[in-house]
Each structure stands twice: as C-alpha cells, then as structure tokens.
Amino acid sequence: MGYEDLDNIDTPIKRYIYLREKYDTFVYRGYRIAFMPESYHVEYDFEIEGLSEFTAKWDFPVFSSKEDIDDSAFGRLLFQLGMVEAISYYKITCPRHFKVMLSDDMAEYALTQDQCLWWRKLLYCGLGEFMYRNGIDVKEEELVDITCATDDGSVESGTKRSGIDSGKTAAVKPYHDSRSYAGCLVPVGGGKDSVVSLELLKDMDVITYSVNGNETTRNVIDICDHKKGDYVARRVLDKRMLELNALGYLNGHTPFSAIVAFSSVIAAYITGRKYITLSNESSANESTVKDSFVNHQYSKSYEFERDFNAYIKDITDSDIHYFSLLRPLTELQIAAVFSKAKKYHKAFRSCNVGSKKGIWCCNCPKCLFVYIILSPFLSDDELTAIFGERLLDKESLDKDFKELIGIDENKPFECVGTRREVAVAMKYYRARGGRSLLTDRYSHFIDMQTGNVKDMLTEWTDEHMVPAELANRVRTAVDSVEILK
Questions:
Q1: Could you give the number of structural domains in the chain?
Q2: For the CA atoms of 422, 215, 299, 161, what is the dihedral angle to 10 degrees?
Q3: Quick one: which of 40, 25, 165 has its CA closest to 95?
Q4: Both 362 and 456 in a single domain?
Q5: What does the alpha-carbon distance between residue 217 and residue 189 come to, in Å, rounded to a whole number?
Q6: Distance between CA atoms of residues 47 and 393, nearest Å
Q7: pTM (two decimals)
Q8: How many other CB atoms are there within 10 angstroms of residue 7's CB atom?
Q9: From CA 207, how far away is CA 216, in angstroms rounded?
Q10: Structural domain range at position 408
Q11: Using one digit for the tens of pLDDT, what is the confidence trace for 5-43?
Q12: Residue among 415, 445, 447 at smallest CA distance from 430
C-alpha cells in the first residue's frame, strides 16, 4: 500500500485533523506466540484501517522450565503489553476509534468498560507531550473511544457498555496465580537512579531488567557485582511505522515507562521475582508545562504507579508487587546518595542523546540537569571528570538553564527534577563560592530563591508503595549523605 505525500499540509495540527478524518479506526487484533528453545517470541497485530497493518515483536528469554508457565496467566499479561505497545502505532494518525477485536481463543482477555476507560486515560495522559508539541488541544473523551469486541458479538466501550446500563460494569474476578515469588527485579536504564536502587538492595536476591539495553546499560549492570542475573527483553518496532514517521505522519513522545511497567510484570512472572523495584522519584510528578496535565514523565509519576497497580490487580491476584523504591525521595536526595557510589561515576549515563553510544553529549538539558543536581555533592573537578566539560560555562545551554531553573515557565521535555530543586542546587553552588557563566548571568534570580539543600535532604513523601522494610533502607541512605563544604 503506498503512502501519501504530506508536504503540502504545512502544520502538525492540520495533519492531525486531516489524518484523523481520513483514517478514523485503529484495530488491535491480539497477539501470536511461538515457544522457541531460548525465548517466548510474541508478535502483536495492529492496523490503521485504510493505511497499513503493523507487527510489533517482543522476545522474552526462557528463564527456567517452561512447565512453570501457566498459559492462561501468561496470555493475560502478554495481551496487556499489546495494549500499551499499540499507543506507538495509534499516534501515527490518532484515529477517533480504537477497536480491540478478539478471536474466540482470546475472548477471555476481553476488556471491561472500566478497563477501556483506564486505557483511554493512559493514552490521553501518556500522549500529553505529543499533543502539546503538535498543537493538539482536545479533551480526553474527544480524543478517542475504546471498544472491545469478541467473535460472539459482545462489545465493551470506554463510553458505554452495549446492552447494559452504561453506569455499571460486571464484576470480573482476577485470574488466580498460585505461584510463589521471591527476590527483586530491578529495571536498569543506565542512569543514576537505578544505580541507587541497585546499591540499596545489595544484600537481596536481585535480577536486573532492561528492554533491548545499550552500551550504558550493560556497563552499569556489569559493575553491579551482587546481581544474580540479567534479564533482557527484546523489542522490535515495525519498520512501516518508521517509514510513516519519515514521511510526515504524526510522531512524538509516547509513554515508554508504561511499556517498561507492563513488560516488567511479564519478566517478573517468568523469573519468579516478587518485587519490581522501579527507580522513579517524587520529582517526576511535576508537570512539564506549567499549570497543565502535560508531563513528559507521566508514566513515571505516582499517579500512573497507583493506577497501574489497581489495573494489574484486576488482571491477576499474583504476589508480584510493582513499586518505585525511590518514590519517597526527590532528585536532589537521589543525587546525594548516588554521589557516594563512586564505582559507577565513569559508567552511568543519563543523556538520551548519548547513552546508546555510552557518552554524554554535553549539549542537552538532561546533561545539564544531572550536572546541576550533583553539584552540591561533587566538586567542579569531579563533575568535569564525569562529563568532560564545565557545563555551567556553556553559552549553548543558556535556554536549557532558564527552563530548568524556572526563569522560563515550561521545563525541558526530558526526565528532569523540579524547578525548585535546580534553583536550590544553584543557590548552594553560589553560596559555597562557585562561579560560572550561567550562574553569574542569572545570579539575581538564583539568590532570591528560598529553601536550602540541607532542609531538602530531610524531605519525605508518604505517597509511595514501598514495603516498610525497604522504605527504612531508603531513609537510612538519605540520612547518611553529606553536602560539599
């Protein structure tokens, strides 16, 4: 099927209106699985009617005997991953209708009305940045309706339930999982946060988890000498989606951390891990666009974590627990703990531009943020040894600095901390005699900020799902940090 030339439609919002009207239906048809000698190979089938079919592929390594796998429980989890994977393909034209069409052999996975509504919220909030940057301004109920139909003709909807009072949803019992679980599965992206989680869990049974992985992820995992294994899932996007992106079809940020969430439950199920210990912090709750729902880190937020746990409990009563170990902390506190993990300082990378190559690009807001948030705990020489440059002296980072510190209203579209944390870190930098191009240029703004590093290091949020015995470890680690004199 040939694709059309969109060069004559000169703005993203015009393309959104045109494409949404022309291709108004997205379909998820379930998945196919092949049990390979070394992996579970899964293929998901999607279609934008009138435009293209797509196949997304995942491989989950076999961890132990396949006889431990309950096909029905496993199938339910795999089906949910397909729902979140679909978002990357849905956004190509943003169809008004999202249909889940299930064959008889998958009818048991059919979504309820409440589940359809759950997915509508994730799709809307998870695409918040995508919509903002493409000039799309719609309400949640206007963006999409999600329906689930099976071969027997029954239909569930995110707005109504066919043949039944739309205000009620029949109770569906979660699938019973009688397996026992133990130990931790720690998702690792290669940044400072997952390093802190790994170190806090040193004496526990830890397996690391990553999707595809890259040089940085491998370097960090290699340094972690207390892990019991490294579980790597493989994800392959359909090249037709990439072709459409290149031709001008709609593109932008999707909630990748939600993909990590659903795939990590599958990984925990296969490996028998009880705790999925994420490394998201309270700072991730702050919106990127001031006074709006638009948050680059939505699927890292406590709101998503809470919603995700409630959703999974509707799917299975498994003893797998998904939570962020670092949720009680801010980015500033995590940086303080990380500053003591010296053996990782040369290996970690938080730069999205450079992490695949194992480098810091030193010219993006993420690099600048990490430099700033570590500055109360590491000297200028130590920071230069990590990054290779004095980032606060770079003229090219002026705009990023203003967005990070709060001079400009909106934060960069990156996984960065709060404006307050950056401002307090820079205030302390100046108070201890630090001088740089950017801090001298904006010294008046910095000096009038309230708050101090010592007080912020004592903060703690009770909005978390960390088991008590692990929360005590987090508190102890923060209580022992020291700021640079």
A1: 2
A2: 170
A3: 25
A4: yes
A5: 6
A6: 49
A7: 0.93
A8: 8
A9: 17
A10: 352-462
A11: 787 888 999 999 999 999 999 999 999 999 999 999 999
A12: 447
